Amino acid sequence: MVQRGEGEARYGIVGHPVDHSRSPTIHRLFARQAGVEISYELIDAPPESLETAIRGFAAAGGKGLNITVPHKEAALDLCDTVGEAAKLAGAANTLSLREGGTIRGDNTDGIGLIRDLQENRGLTVAGARILVLGAGGAARGIIGPLLAENPAELRLANRSRERADTLAAKWDSVVACTFAELADEAPFDLVFNATSAGLKGEAPPFPTNVVGSNSTAYDLVYSLKDTPFVTWAKAAGSRRAVQGWGMLVEQAAESFEIWHGNRPNTRAILTQLLGPRWNR
Ligand code: ATR
Q1: What's the domain count of the chain?
Q2: What is d(CA 195, CA 27) in angstroms, rounded to the nearest whole number?
Q3: Ligand 1 close to Cβ of residue 91 (< 6 A)
Q4: pTM over cut 0.90
Q5: pLDDT digits (tens, 9 = 90+) for 71-120
Q6: Is residue 2 part of a domain?
Q7: Cα 68 to Cα 73: distance, rounded to the nearest angstrom
Q8: Does residue 137 sit in the same domain as residue 45?
């Protein structure tokens, strides 16, 4: 049972599983920075009880919820009003629970990634050759926001060709292929790992020529040590190989701003979480 003080507004994250989530830590740090009192709870709900969990939290006075795997698409269907980014992504990661039981859905993952790339890491997406590895929900969430920055090219590669084709068909300019079909490609400027290969302990099955001395390899997965993709990218000769900590904190900051109208100082929080070398 979470202990709450008088006057604390309730927030939380719904996922399945959810116990690994860093969102409670991040939101509590933001709240301390802003001088607001919140509680932030972990809510584990299997798909069949997602709606009950969300409506029950709202009925008990909850103000907002983050939504994580595997619920982002299903959560969108429960929203009465939906922001543009959530509409485009077909998924919501931020719910605002309004008086009267209505729900507003937003998606801050895309803007979180773009902020991390451009503001924290000084990278330019405009004009870049981009490779996205994977064709599941994580890939779907980042392609729209990346295309909005006008890259020179966005290639989508996936183990299963069919899934790559289906996802790429949502945009005119995205070209799909298999990993093997990347074998003759020059290194890309930005290579995103949106597969779950590393999470399952499987070695990244990508050809090493896709990264080189001007590439940044970006793992949407994050860990306190090098992820399998980061290890692979460094060994393959990528100039930089980074994890998605910045995206995690930036998407959380966007959610915090939606709920509290106050934009956190994300660099201070990243330094607090990861130390002064967090953006290396
Ligand atoms: P999510 O929707 O959360 O991204 P997902 O639906 O499980 O998760 O999709 C995971 C992605 O990782 C898919 O692109 C999957 O490839 P397939 O479409 O071919 O299944 C990819 N993936 C998972 N394990 C992989 C592995 N060992 N090697 C390469 N790709 C892998």
Answers
A1: 2
A2: 26
A3: no
A4: yes
A5: 999 999 999 999 999 998 899 999 999 999 999 999 999 999 999 999 99
A6: no
A7: 10
A8: no
